[in-house]
Amino acid sequence: MISTRHTVLIVCTTAIFGFCFGVGASLWFSSLTSADKTGHTLRIKNLSYPLIKPLLACNIDAQTPTPALNDLQSLLKKAIDTATESGNIAKAGIYIRDLDDGSWTSVNGDDRYTPASLMKIVTLMGYLNEAENNPSILQNRLTVDPDLDVTKQNIIPALSAEPGKEYTVAELLQMMIAYSDNTASHTLIEHMRAESLNGLLDVLEIPTFADEAHYTISPRLYSRLLRILYNSTLLTASDSERALELLAQTDYREALVKGVDASETVAHKFGDVTLLNSDGTTSYQHHDCGIVYATHPYVICIMTEGNDLPTLANTIASFTTIVDTFMNDR
Fold first, then answer.
1. Quick check: 54 pLDDT over 60?
2. How open is the CA angle 157-287-197, to the nearest 5 degrees?
3. Percent of the chain with pLDDT over 70
4. Structural domain containing residue 204
5. Region 103-127 average pLDDT
6. Is 62 helix (H, G, I), strand (E, B) or coil?
7. By C-alpha distance, which of 95, 90, 89 is closest to 110?
8. 90 in Cβ contact with 306 (< 8 Å)
């Protein structure tokens, strides 16, 4: 269960897109939340304070894509069809949202994929949430299990925690996010309260880990994690900034980063997984989701499946270039 105190001010516009800005108020929350049936609000319900339901996010999932982005949607549909016909991908899902005005569009944005390392962002948010009550937790020293057996990663981390060696939580978080190191990730999860990850997902109304081996998430749902960091409505402003700074340090420069203008900062997380098909062959899923700090910052989440990881990465880059060009020309 998540339980902490935050300072968050919320101003929610009632214009067409209803965008939320963090602007300050005292907020206590648990894992009990409620959203209206149209998906326009996400409120925190705390049984200790029965008369209030603080606002965490508004217009979190407007049901209809924004007409102003219809041309972008058409371009992406065509690009996905072309990539599928050429055999570069088997399928792809994309979700885009302008963080200034809340306008959004998607192509197959509700299709679900195995998130793999994308979910390391939840571990990061969980530890930063705990640190708001207990700041010293980030300096706690953890020893990597000498017998820890981590499956070899398809994209090998440039820096990885060493079995038997001791690290601070802050150092492990940095390796887990900047280098997507599975050893650091497993070590952090081993020392996290069992309910923390699912409690955080429950607060954000994202499906919890009932069965990690079969867990799936859509580009649209995953984007909510990035948006809540950007709006600083779950963590404090300093911790939201810290999380995004770590995501901006991600050293993976293919896929999403390769597709945007070189002058733009990108706070992102990638993930990939090997799939064993019924005929004994293997295929891959490769995803990259983040915030692009263009003239008008936007969230982009692209999830793909196909037969070759480098080809998937290049295809993600090509989709991203379409989006970045469009968003910068608006």
1. no
2. 75
3. 79
4. 4-329
5. 95
6. coil
7. 95
8. yes
User: Residue 314's closest CA among 231, 254, 266, 272?
Assistant: 254
8 A C-beta contact, residue 246 and residue 177: yes
Structure tokens belonging to residue 26: 């005292």
The burial of 47, by beta-carbon neighbours within 10 Å (0-12 exposed, 13-18 middle, 19 or more buried), is given as exposed
More confident residue, 20 or 301: 301
Residue 75 maps to which CATH number?
3.40.710.10
If one counts the domains in the chain, the total is 1
**Helix H segments across the chain?**
70-85, 120-133, 169-178, 182-190, 196-203, 219-231, 237-248, 255-259, 309-329
**Rg over CA atoms, the chain:** 19
b/e burial code for range 193-203 (CB count within 10 A of at least 16 → b): eeebbbbbbbb
Is pLDDT above 90 for 109? yes
